[in-house]
Specification:
This protein is an alpha/beta fold. It is built from two helices and six strands, in the order βαββαβββ. The longest helix is centred in the last third of the chain and has 19 residues.
Length: 114
């Protein structure tokens, strides 16, 4: 039950969004037990983000939420993959990307909870 929200100052075309969705679908596999099968993605482009008092270069903030937890090593691997995707696909320097992880034991779907 992972969810990835990507907010970026860069405009994302529909074609690029599909590419990002596919790559995030592969990236989530860095976390054991997670796959694209249950992944929900959200893309928020043209976000008004500032980092270190500056917004003159592209920025991104990525939120990864999942049911239960994962190891620090899995999160480290996921961060590397996500940063590489955003750098290669949107031209966002890796040092201008934050990735936040959030874990929960309660996740609802289809009228009930897991």
């Amino acid at each position: 039950m992972p969810y990835i929200k990507t907010s970026t100052t860069v405009k994302i075309s529909p074609e690029k969004e599909r590419v990002l969705k596919e790559k995030m679908g592969k990236a989530i596999e860095a976390i054991p037990g997670k796959s694209e099968e249950w992944l929900m993605c959200e893309f928020c482009d043209s976000a008004r983000l500032w980092f270190r008092g500056d917004n003159s270069a592209p920025l991104a903030f990525v939120e990864v939420m999942l049911l239960h937890s994962a190891s620090p090593a899995a999160y480290e691997k996921m961060t590397g993959i996500v940063c590489s995707i955003l750098e290669s696909e949107l031209g966002i320097a890796q040092n201008r990307i934050y990735v936040k992880y959030e874990e929960t034991d309660n996740w609802g779907w289809n009228g009930s909870n897991f």
